[in-house]
Design a protein that fits this description.
The complex is a heterodimer of chains A (325) and B (389). Helices cover 36% and strands 21% of the residues of chain A. Chain A is built from 12 helices and 14 strands. A 7-stranded mixed β-sheet of chain A has the order 3-2-4-5-7-6-12, with helices on both faces. A 5-stranded mixed β-sheet of chain A has the order 9-11-10-13-14, with helices on both faces. Chain B folds into 2 domains: 2-342, Thiamin diphosphate (ThDP)-binding fold, Pyr/PP domains (Rossmann fold, 3-Layer(aba) Sandwich); 348-387, no CATH class. Chain B has 16 helices and 7 strands. In chain B, strands 1-2-3-7-6 form a 5-stranded parallel β-sheet, sandwiched between helices. In chain B, strands 4-5 form a two-stranded antiparallel sheet. Classes of the chains: A alpha/beta (325), B alpha/beta (389).
Chain lengths: 325, 389
């Protein structure tokens, strides 16, 4: 057991992956000498060389497009997109090329590529640095999409993402990079695609991922004072969704609130609400509620505390859910 | 020191010449001409087989166009007029060299041993791919314009990482990669990013641009104000314009560029100056945007005719050769026609296969539900509705 930040846990996971498989390469803007703007790749170029940790030219489509070619040659690239709002120049390569290659080649051309994206708000950043674009990718067949919420998961999930023969878009909650927790680097990794009961409870289920898991856990702690026992499910994987864990939880609590930073419209919350209503139509006591960012462009950072779901907004939704009798 | 420089710097004769006259080894009349930088010295049989490929490739194209007109293909993108650029460059590829095509590279596909029926399958709607790219060293057709140039560059970077550039332990001298694209694609960000990457990493890739003068209805002067091959200079690697209707020059220029790449001298941009004699695709109507007189002028530069004249003038062929070739082309066309008509549609549930290397619960569930739904239609009195979730 070691106490480390999420950034360090991701760094250690990348290091372990590179040690385990010589075909794993890291590529992106400023990932080499600088170690990435969030230092997630710190020290990797020093230890693995410029051939395996490449500071690329500044063009996101080029990063993903050449990674596709490298994968065709048998490499296992891990691409860093510097910020969420910068992924769109690469969107065409991700959606039109990366996502479809395995299917159109009938499996002859696997795409074992991990695309790391620091995402979400809460750090007072300028425009285009605080977005939550996960639904765009979750909507795309052929991609797998995950988001880690804590150092231990970051350590485990990153290694599995790199090991996956499918393309994985890996969202890292940037405002949680510096939160520390114990990481057991000797533990066997759990399935990447399995959701986690982050906190057991009985009265309602909060469903979250990435940065909002901490928010939901805090909300659940606060709710104890009111005698409410909330369960928190950390999805981990957004595509595929581990629906069985979610359904099992909501079947017990009979109430669900989905929490994410991304806007509500056609987001992960909408998908979860639809699936839960299909599975538990007669068992739920309340409709699935959503606590999300608003359907506006991400606001100037002085307003982000109003935009982002927080403890109070989560508890307000819980109140609304419990009001259905 | 001198030697080290020679490895990284492009040969000045080709790089610094500002000329716009394309490299030509065969005039439109079939006269063999010389060029200071490029030459070919082929056996009689090789000359004949180049012509043979031109004829067979055009025949594939004609047959496919006819099949589209008869409703057997959804669409076809004809290569008519570009046979020499494709066969010349395609025949310059060694077995291990990897090609990244657009959707019009039927001639290169032929040179790489891809069954034309696989191409038809794509345009018929039977498949989104059709062959194993690794086996053929020929990536699947890419339809989004220019995307494949980045894949080619990345692949070439992998060749480099594998140490497969320059002299090899087995006595060979390395692998090269070729990316095909067109004049329209030259405006795409991805193509320009590929140039940056290839240049910065000195990747063993040849950018082979068939400037066929038209991006659907848009002429090349809407894409660039300088000759396309000169774009390379700004990116830091040599560019050369070749007469794309001259199969010998296309072969010679591509072979040199590939050799430069495989020997560690980095990328080259080859602009094959040619003409799309047909429509963009069978859905297009070029009479709306170009003059018939242009087409007539280019017909005089037909890539097949000039090679035929050359063979005649060199006395490399006789009547039997042409008779045999005609019979072979007929047989190929018949095989394509029969094969196309006999091509079965894919199984409906196959759309769920291969979406992922490791499939997902959602897909398993959807497939099971869909199959149950389909099964509801089989057999008398079946209740399809009951099978749907």
């Amino acid at each position: 057991m070691a106490v480390m930040t999420m950034a360090k846990a991701l760094n250690e996971a990348l290091r372990r992956s590179m040690e385990d498989d010589a075909k794993v390469i890291v590529m992106g803007e400023d990932v080499g000498t600088l170690g990435g703007v969030f230092r997630v790749t710190d020290g990797l170029q020093k230890d693995f060389g410029e051939d395996r940790v490449m500071d690329t030219p500044l063009a996101e489509s080029g990063i993903v497009g050449t990674a596709i070619g490298l994968a065709m040659r048998g490499y296992r690239p891990v691409c860093e997109i510097q910020f969420d709002g910068f992924v769109y120049p690469a969107y065409d390569q991700i959606v039109s090329q990366l996502a479809k290659m395995h299917a159109r080649s009938k499996g002859a051309v696997p795409m074992p590529i991990t695309i790391r994206i620091p995402f979400g708000g809460g750090i007072g950043a300028v425009e285009h640095h605080s977005e939550s674009p996960e639904a765009y990718f979750a909507h795309t067949a052929g991609l797998k999409v995950v988001a880690c919420s804590n150092p231990a998961d970051a350590w485990s999930m990153m290694q599995q993402a790199v090991h996956s023969d499918d393309p994985v878009v890996f969202f890292e909650p940037k405002r949680r990079y510096w939160e520390k927790a114990e990481v057991d680097t000797s533990a066997a990794p759990q399935s990447l695609w399995k959701a986690r009961i982050a906190r057991p409870g009985t009265d309602a289920t909060l469903i979250a991922y990435g940065p909002m898991v901490r928010t939901c856990l805090d909300a659940a702690t606060a709710a104890e004072e009111d005698g409410r026992d909330l369960e928190v499910v950390d999805l981990r994987s957004l595509s595929p969704l581990d629906l069985s864990t979610v359904v099992e939880s909501v079947r017990r609590t009979r109430r669900a609130v989905v929490v994410h930073e991304a806007p509500s419209f056609v987001g992960l919350g909408a998908e979860l609400a639809a699936r839960l209503s299909e599975e538990l139509y007669y068992e739920m006591e309340a409709p699935v509620l959503r606590v999300t960012g608003f359907d506006t462009p991400y606001p100037p950072s002085r307003l982000e505390e109003d935009y982002l779901p927080d403890l109070d907004r989560v508890l307000h939704a819980v109140d609304r859910s419990l009001a259905f009798a | 020191m001198l030697e080290a420089t020679a490895l990284t710097e492009p040969p000045p004769a080709r790089a610094e010449r500002g000329e716009e006259e394309p490299v030509q080894l065969l005039t439109p009349e079939g006269e063999r001409v010389s060029h200071p930088d490029y030459d070919v010295c082929l056996s009689d049989e090789e000359y004949r087989s180049l012509y043979r490929d031109l004829v067979l490739v055009r025949r594939i194209d004609v047959e496919a166009t006819a099949l589209q007109r008869q409703g057997e293909l959804g669409i076809w993108a004809a290569l008519l007029g570009q046979e020499a650029a494709q066969v010349g460059s395609g025949r310059a590829l060694r077995e291990k060299d990897f090609a990244f095509p657009t959707y019009r590279e039927h001639g290169v596909a032929w040179c790489k041993g891809v069954d034309p029926l696989k191409l038809l399958g794509l345009f018929r709607g039977s498949s989104n791919g059709g062959w194993d790219p690794q086996e053929k060293r020929f990536q699947l057709y890419t339809i989004v314009i220019g995307s494949q140039t980045l894949h080619a560059t990345g692949y070439a970077m992998g060749v480099q990482k594998d140490g497969a550039v320059g002299p090899q332990a087995d006595g060979t001298d390395g692998e090269a990669v070729i990316a095909y694209f067109g004049d329209g694609a030259s405006s795409q960000g991805d193509v320009n990013e590929a140039f940056v990457w290839a240049s910065v990493y000195n990747a063993p890739v040849v950018f082979f641009c068939q400037n066929n003068q038209w991006g659907i209805s848009t002429p090349t002067d809407h894409q660039s104000r300088i000759p396309l091959y000169r774009r390379a200079q700004g990116f830091g690697f040599p560019g050369v314009r070749v007469d794309g209707n001259d199969v010998l020059a296309s072969y010679a220029v591509t072979r040199t560029a590939l050799d430069d790449a495989r020997h560690g001298q980095g990328p080259t941009l080859v602009e094959a100056y040619t003409y799309r004699m047909g429509a963009h695709t069978t859905s297009d109507d070029p009479t709306r945007y170009r003059l018939a007189s242009d087409l007539e002028a280019w017909k005089l530069k037909d890539p097949l005719e000039r090679m035929k004249s050359f063979l005649y003038k060199q006395q490399l062929v006789d009547a039997d050769f042409f008779e045999q070739l005609r019979a072979d082309a007929d047989a190929l066309a018949a095989r394509i026609r029969t094969g196309c008509l006999e091509m079965s549609d894919p199984e409906p549930a196959s759309m769920f296969s291969h979406v992922y290397a490791e499939t997902t619960p959602l897909l398993r569930e959807q497939q099971a539900s869909f199959e149950a739904y389909l099964a509801g239609f089989s057999g008398p009195g079946s209740a399809a509705e009951g099978a749907v979730r």
